[in-house]
Structures are given as structure tokens and as C-alpha cells.
Design a protein that fits this description.
Blueprint: H1 3-20, H2 23-29, E1 31-32, H3 33-39, H4 44-47, H5 55-99, E2 107-108, H6 112-125, E3 130-131, E4 140-141, H7 142-158, H8 170-185, H9 187-192, H10 194-200, H11 202-213
Antiparallel strand pairs: 1-2, 3-4
Helix pairs in contact: 1-5, 5-6, 5-8, 6-7, 6-8, 7-10, 7-11
């Protein structure tokens, strides 16, 4: 496994662990619309990616990064991995900032935007990669895993729970960045997998319809 991937997972886990029991730190660096727009605390657009709601939230994101990160590193190198991961976190949170600009109280945390970017970019390269997930004894094709991942995220975003604090809206922005990056750098490979990408993107298309046409969010 690449050293850069280990470092990203380790640093994210350490900061998340510290913030679990340090509420002032958590509040200072989480994504918050009011703090960013009114106080210009733009660091929150990136720092929120190192915070998580609980152990399961952290585990799910880091497991997904662990499975799919090496594909991005192999396809685009360590620098490409860094660009996709942190670029997706930033774009995902910028999209959330736009989406919830009229809700200064809106807050979120998590590496979901970056993980979504890595997920989409890697499956663009190898859509049928077999993933063994928890106690399921048979491998799940990567694009099916991606479909379920995004379906859950879209559902949670459109049906928010009190005190959820997870940046489900950031998934779409992160996924878009990862996909555009993969197509721009390896267009022939990505386009040859267009059918798989289309299946995986169905929840995102539904989300876009609900947000921009039905105006269910914002």
C-alpha cells in the first residue's frame, strides 16, 4: 500500500479520535455555513474532512478509502491521489456552501466528499472490481458498491436526521470532481466504462433533479 494513503488514513483517524472528546476543537473546525460566510473561516472547507460523527462514520469512510485509494494511486500517481482526495473535499464542501447558503446554522463533518471523489475516479478505471464488505461472503462489484454508497447518501441528504452532522451533500460535489479528473486524464478508459458509471450515477442524477428542479433543498 502506498505511504501517502497510510498517512492520509492515519492523520484523519488521529484527528477524528481527538475531536471525539474535544468539543471545542470539533466546533472550531467543522463545516458551518454561518462561520464561513460571516466570519470568512474558509479553513473549515478543508478541516471538516478530518472530523467524523462517530466510530462507524470514520470506519466506513476510511474503509472505502482503503479499498479504492490504491486504484487512484496506480492510475494517477501519489500526486493525482492528493489532488483528487483534497480537491473533492473542497468542491464537495463548496457545493454544500452553495446549497445551504440561506441556512447559516447548517453544519457537517466527514471525509465523504474526498472519499466520493476517490470512489468515482477509481471505479471509472476498474468498475467491476470485487469488494468484500463486512460479513458478505461474495465480492460486490465496485460499481454496485458505488451505487449503494451514493443511494444511501442521497437518501440521508433528502431525509435529514436531527444532529446527523454528516455532509451528505458533499458526496455529489466530491464525486463530480473525481469523475471529471478521471475523464480528463484517461478519457478512453473512463468512457469505455460509461455504462457502469451511468448505473453508479443514478442516485446522483435523482439528487440533482430533486435539488435543482424540485427545489427540495436549500
Amino acid at each position: 500500500m502506498s505511504l501517502i494513503l497510510i498517512i492520509v488514513i492515519a492523520v484523519t483517524a488521529i484527528i477524528s479520535f481527538i475531536a471525539f472528546s474535544n468539543q471545542p476543537l470539533f466546533e472550531k473546525y467543522k463545516f458551518n455555513v454561518g462561520a464561513i460566510n460571516n466570519n470568512k473561516e474558509y479553513i473549515r472547507l478543508l478541516s471538516a474532512g478530518f472530523l467524523h460523527a462517530d466510530m462507524m462514520h470514520l470506519l466506513f469512510n476510511m474503509m472505502t478509502l482503503y479499498f479504492f485509494g490504491p486504484i487512484v494511486i496506480q492510475a494517477f500517481g501519489a500526486v493525482g491521489f492528493i489532488i483528487v482526495y483534497f480537491g473533492s473535499i473542497l468542491l464537495g464542501n463548496i457545493f454544500s456552501l452553495y446549497l445551504y447558503k440561506s441556512q447559516p446554522w447548517y453544519s457537517a463533518i466527514g471525509a465523504s466528499g474526498g472519499v466520493s471523489g476517490i470512489l468515482f475516479a477509481s471505479i471509472a478505471m476498474i468498475p467491476d472490481l470485487g469488494i468484500y464488505f463486512f460479513f458478505i461472503p461474495i465480492p460486490i462489484p465496485g460499481y454496485i458498491f458505488g451505487f449503494l454508497y451514493f443511494a444511501y447518501s442521497v437518501y440521508m441528504m433528502l431525509n435529514p436526521k436531527p444532529h446527523d452532522n454528516i455532509g451528505h451533500a458533499a458526496h455529489l460535489g466530491g464525486a463530480a470532481f473525481g469523475l471529471v479528473f478521471a475523464i480528463a486524464l484517461q478519457p478512453e478508459v473512463a468512457m469505455s466504462n460509461a455504462l457502469y458509471l451511468g448505473i453508479m450515477a443514478l442516485p446522483l442524477l435523482y439528487m440533482s433533479y430533486m435539488v435543482f428542479v424540485k427545489k427540495k433543498i436549500g
